[in-house]
Amino acid sequence: MMRKRRFGPLVIATVALLAVTSPAQARSYYAVEMVVFANPAGDGRFAESWRAQPGMPDVSRARPVSGGGGVAAVSPSAYRLRGAWRALKASAGYRPLRHLAWTQAGTARTNAPVVLVGDDPGSPVYGTVRVSRGRYLHVDLDLLYRDGDGEYRFRSHRRMRSNEIHYLDHPMFGVLILITPLSG
User: Fold this and answer.
1) Rounded Cα gap, residues 5 and 10, in angstroms
2) Which run of H or of E encompasses 173?
3) CB–CB of 131/32 below 8 Å?
């Protein structure tokens, strides 16, 4: 007499594993919003050594938010950090410089779009930001800030959580960034 084999648990485990590792699985999309602001009272130039010519961020692969390439602009009416922008504007200690938002797929760092911050190299803040997703969300930032006293460059790589406002700090300026998952 032949024994009947039970493959049920094995089949369920295999299907579950394929669902997790399948390259055809649905992509995650995110809304990314950032506010860049100056800290005019920042005395970081005295606490740290600053190079006279900090160099320019590499913008060769960068695209403006409205320029396609995997990003789509978010309407200013949908910005979630408008209150932060208004608070910075009303504050005597800070000066908001740039507010932008876009949507993009959550892709690996090598495929993630590089977004241009600033209109041209003469802008008060100019550079790039790249948001990628591996096991966690990551932000790569390379910004140059100009004020009357000089130029300051801020390069940073940070691991982030979605739905939280993150503050990236430089003595002369700062960045607020919010990454929100979009429902499919």
Assistant:
1) 11
2) strand 173-182
3) yes
d(CA 12, CA 50): 59
DSSP 3: P
Write the burial class of residue 97 (CB in 10 Å: 0-12 exposed, 13-18 middle, 19+ buried).
Answer: buried
Question: Rounded to whole angstroms, how far apart are CA atoms 88 and 35?
Answer: 10
pTM over 0.85: no
CB atoms within 10 A of CB 35: 22
Using an 8 Å Cβ cutoff, are 65 and 163 in contact? no
Where are the domains positioned within the chain? Answer: 26-182
Helix (H) or strand (E) holding 182: strand 173-182
User: pLDDT tens digits for 44-102?
Assistant: 555 555 555 688 999 999 999 987 888 999 999 999 999 999 999 999 889 999 999 99
Q: What is the pLDDT of residues 96-133, one digit of tens each?
A: 999 999 999 999 999 999 999 998 888 999 999 999 99
